């Protein structure tokens, strides 16, 4: 398993970014374990899908971003997927504590929760909202970093697409900040610069998702993806040009991405070896949570391990917990959300499912523990 880049907990993970920025601001109760410059205000901008290796390999398309590539990468955590990473960032905790353990995972109704929509997929049923029956504040009850900062007197601003207001993921991961909905590069930049220049201590969090979108649709490194990266490079250069001297800008990402061939995939629905004894298949195509029927865990584990072979790694959920994949602490409620069996794929391997026809057909994917997916940049601007 020498290709696996497992999470570690040395104070340099994505979950450490916001507490470290608040520590650099001198806010009591927060420690800067990453090493940001001291500042009055701080802004974190998350570029969805901007892996450290992808940025390094496409330096010609992002010269300004690459000029900031002077620090060792951070680790995103496991699984390397947006919903988990953003909740780790927002709570300052790993998945074993905050409970958003994947793109989809078991919910109390017996189906799969998809945190992006906060909807359930009951076995054999149709998606339905769980916002009322399993509220995000109940599923993820930990106080967020934003709430803690606001309670300490910091002006906290969440600068994200306007359509994210009130969503389940926003409520689970980012509650506590004043919501500033944006629609394009222009108002994203303006709101972040306003946070950076505020007269009182201010923490701004911004998000941009189009690089990830184009990576999924066209593949990372494709012409559309590279052109989008060039636009992001200009955005960050503009922010740096106008950043007040009293502020720090930290550009990070939630995960990287690998190019895949959807036609070369294992099929969790039609292969009897992957179907027998399985109650639910969650996660995503490169990191699957497999939930076994009662008494079938050992057989499911053996069948998945034999079928996947050298294309990935299959281990029990208990072993993944013991090895710290979900963080140093896994609470009892969260343990029930983790698959009985975990399957992660290497290189370009994927495990598709008919329940996810759109997701399974994408040209770029993430979720696993390769360095291309796990390592993310931390790019710091301080004038």
How would you sum up this structure, described in words?
There is one protein chain. The protein contains 17 helices and 20 strands. Helix 9 runs parallel beside helix 11 (223-242) and helix 10 packs antiparallel against helix 11. It folds into 2 domains: 14-259 and 369-382, Alkaline Phosphatase, subunit A, CATH 3.40.720; 266-363, Gyrase A, domain 2. The strands form 6 sheets. It has a 6-stranded mixed beta sheet, sandwiched between helices. The chain is an alpha/beta fold.
What's the number of domains? Answer: 2
Rg of Cα set: 20 Å
* Integer average pLDDT: 96
The CATH superfamily of the largest domain is Alkaline Phosphatase, subunit A
Protein name: Nucleotide pyrophosphatase/phosphodiesterase family protein
What key phrases describe this protein's structure?
single chain, 383 residues, alpha/beta, Alkaline Phosphatase, subunit A, Gyrase A, domain 2, six-stranded mixed beta sheet, four-stranded antiparallel beta sheet, 20 strands, 33% helix, globular, Phosphodiest/P_Trfase
């Amino acid at each position: 398993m020498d290709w696996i880049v497992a999470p570690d907990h040395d104070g340099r993970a994505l979950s450490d970014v916001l507490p470290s920025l608040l520590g650099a601001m001198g806010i009591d109760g927060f420690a800067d374990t990453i090493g940001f410059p001291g500042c009055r205000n701080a802004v974190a901008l998350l570029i969805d899908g901007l892996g450290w290796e992808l940025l390094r390999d496409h330096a010609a398309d992002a010269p300004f971003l690459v000029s900031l590539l002077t620090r060792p990468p951070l680790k995103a955590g496991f699984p390397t997927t947006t919903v988990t990473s953003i909740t780790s960032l927002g709570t300052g905790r790993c998945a074993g504590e905050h409970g958003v353990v994947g793109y989809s995972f078991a919910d109390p109704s017996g189906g799969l929760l998809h945190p992006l929509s906060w909807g359930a997929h009951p076995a054999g049923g149709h998606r339905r909202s769980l916002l009322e029956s399993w509220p995000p504040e109940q599923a993820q009850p930990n106080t967020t970093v934003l709430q803690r900062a606001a309670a300490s007197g910091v002006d906290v601003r969440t600068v994200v697409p306007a359509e994210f207001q009130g969503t389940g993921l926003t409520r689970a991961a980012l509650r506590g900040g004043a919501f500033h909905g944006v629609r394009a590069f222009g108002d994203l930049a303006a709101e972040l610069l306003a946070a950076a220049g505020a007269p009182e201590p201010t923490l701004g969090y911004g998000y941009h998702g189009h690089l990830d979108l184009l990576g999924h649709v066209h593949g990372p490194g494709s012409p559309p993806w590279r052109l989008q990266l060039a636009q992001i490079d200009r955005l960050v250069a503009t922010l740096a040009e106008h950043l007040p001297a009293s502020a720090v800008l930290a550009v990070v990402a939630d995960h990287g991405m690998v190019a895949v061939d959807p036609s070369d995939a294992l099929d969790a629905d039609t292969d009897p070896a992957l179907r027998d004894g399985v109650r639910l298949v969650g996660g995503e195509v490169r990191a699957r949570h497999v939930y076994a029927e009662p008494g079938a865990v050992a057989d499911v584990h053996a069948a998945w391990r034999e079928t996947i072979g050298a294309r990935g790694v299959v281990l029990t959920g208990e072993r993944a917990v013991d090895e710290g994949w979900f963080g140093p602490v896994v609470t009892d409620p969260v343990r029930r959300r983790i698959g009985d069996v975990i399957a992660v794929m290497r290189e370009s391997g994927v495990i598709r499912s008919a329940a996810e026809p759109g997701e399974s057909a994408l040209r770029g994917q993430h979720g696993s523990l390769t360095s291309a997916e796990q390592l993310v940049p931390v790019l710091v601007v301080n004038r």
